[in-house]
Design a protein that fits this description.
By secondary structure, this protein is an alpha+beta fold. It folds into 3 domains: 79 residues, no CATH class; 68 residues, Ubiquitin Conjugating Enzyme (Roll), CATH 3.10.110.10; 106 residues, Ubiquitin Conjugating Enzyme, CATH 3.10.110. The chain is built from 9 helices and 15 strands. The strands form 5 sheets. The protein has a 4-stranded antiparallel beta sheet with strand order 3-4-5-6, covered by helices on one side. Strands 7-8-9-10 form a 4-stranded antiparallel beta sheet, covered by helices on one side. The protein is flat, with a radius of gyration of 34 Å. The two termini are 58 Å apart. Keywords: Metal-binding, Zinc, Zinc-finger. This is EOG090X0G12. One of its GO terms (biological process) is interstrand cross-link repair. InterPro entries: Fancl, FANCL_C, FANCL_d2, FANCL_d3, FANCL_d3_sf, FancL_WD-rpt_cont_dom, UBQ-conjugating_enzyme/RWD, Znf_RING. One of its GO terms (molecular function) is zinc ion binding.
Length: 346
């Protein structure tokens, strides 16, 4: 027993008093103590000339380990107390009404704020390391520069509030887009999402990437559909790009450039327009959250497929499919005209 605690040590001496073929077994805690002492292992202990010498090596080692454990425990307690007091003081400054939630040991908390449009935003804070971790559902990461000893939680909260006001126009533009179009992706947009995939016409969609700092300028766009079908719309935009008006909503500008009325989810739900977005292989609209985005280029076919479904379909037809790099070439499952497909994103 050392310091009122038992440590199990089993010493086997089959040829006593000779040390030949002797062995040592010990408890896990004692093994841990020995393994953390440089230059000391079982072989060193086995070379001791007597049990007294063996015990003489172990007892000081156990005592030192016990002292170090007590020291570390006291330091941890002191750190926790300091963290609690400093965090509570910070929340006093920010205002307790801004605290949305906190976990049992104050290592994670959520601070809320309402912007000028009365939308709520949440700042997630995680303590535990020397530098706290901050995150929020903003389209761009906030540059939280934390300097140990000088930075404060209230300063980070102020940056969080300022950033919310900075993105008011962006969130307004995205809400207008959601209200004025049939949004295919993301299925449940967050305030972090800077893109929308919208329906333009049957089997034709458009991916729009909006700049959060300049949301009403002409966005980055990617056409999805058969080349024959989308070429007409692409040419219209190229021919009329100069009429884009940054004072108008994005969907209104698109309707002007494309000379169409964009389909809305409400109209389609009421059956006033005939749009088909199901994959013609799996017969479902969404697969892993994605809508069909590959369309047959044959204008008399125009069937749509999930990338994954088409890729796997073509790969399964070994005799009629050829592969070039990762891309597969084969026949459309419906019209049997040539169709190709890149591998699905992983």
């Amino acid at each position: 027993m050392v310091l009122d605690k038992d440590y199990l040590l089993h010493l086997s001496l089959p040829n006593y008093p000779s040390h030949e073929k002797c062995s040592i077994n010990m408890s896990q805690e004692l093994k841990f103590i020995i393994n953390n002492k440089k230059g000391l292992d079982k072989q060193v202990l086995l070379r001791c000339n007597s049990i007294k010498e063996l015990i003489g090596k172990l007892v000081p080692l156990i005592r030192d380990h016990h002292k170090m454990s007590l020291l570390c425990t006291n330091m941890e307690k002191q750190m926790v107390t300091t963290d609690y007091s400093s965090i509570l003081a910070e929340i006093d400054i920010i205002g307790w009404e801004k605290l949305a939630s906190v976990n049992h040991d104050f290592t994670e908390l959520k601070l809320k704020m309402y912007d000028s449009l009365n939308y709520q935003h949440i700042l997630n804070v995680k303590f535990g390391n020397l530098v706290p971790d901050f995150s929020a559902e903003y389209p761009r990461n906030i540059n939280f520069e934390w300097h140990e000893g000088t930075s404060t939680l209230s300063e980070m909260y102020s940056l969080f509030c300022q950033a919310a006001e900075q993105y008011q126009d962006f969130w307004k533009a995205m809400e207008e887009l959601d209200a004025g179009c049939w949004v295919l992706e993301p299925e449940s947009p967050s305030r972090r999402d800077t893109y929308r995939k919208i329906s333009i016409a049957p089997n034709i969609s458009l991916k729009i990437e909006v700049d959060p700092n300049h949301p009403y300028v002409f966005p980055s766009i990617t056409w999805l559909g058969s080349e024959t079908a989308i070429s007409i719309f692409r040419e219209k935009i190229l021919d009329r790009i100069e009429v884009w008006d940054s004072d108008l909503p994005i969907h209104a500008n698109l309707e002007t450039l494309l000379e169409i009325s964009l389909p809305s989810k409400q109209c389609i739900a009421m059956g006033t327009e005939n749009y088909e977005v199901t994959c013609c292989i799996c017969y479902s609209e969404r697969l892993n959250g994605e809508v069909p985005s590959r369309t047959c280029d044959n204008p008399n076919c125009g069937q749509s497929f999930h990338i994954y479904c088409l890729y796997e379909w073509l790969r399964s037809l070994i005799q009629t499919t050829r592969k070039q790099g990762n891309k597969v070439f084969g026949a459309c499952p419906y019209c049997e005209q040539p169709i190709s497909c890149n591998p699905p994103a992983t």
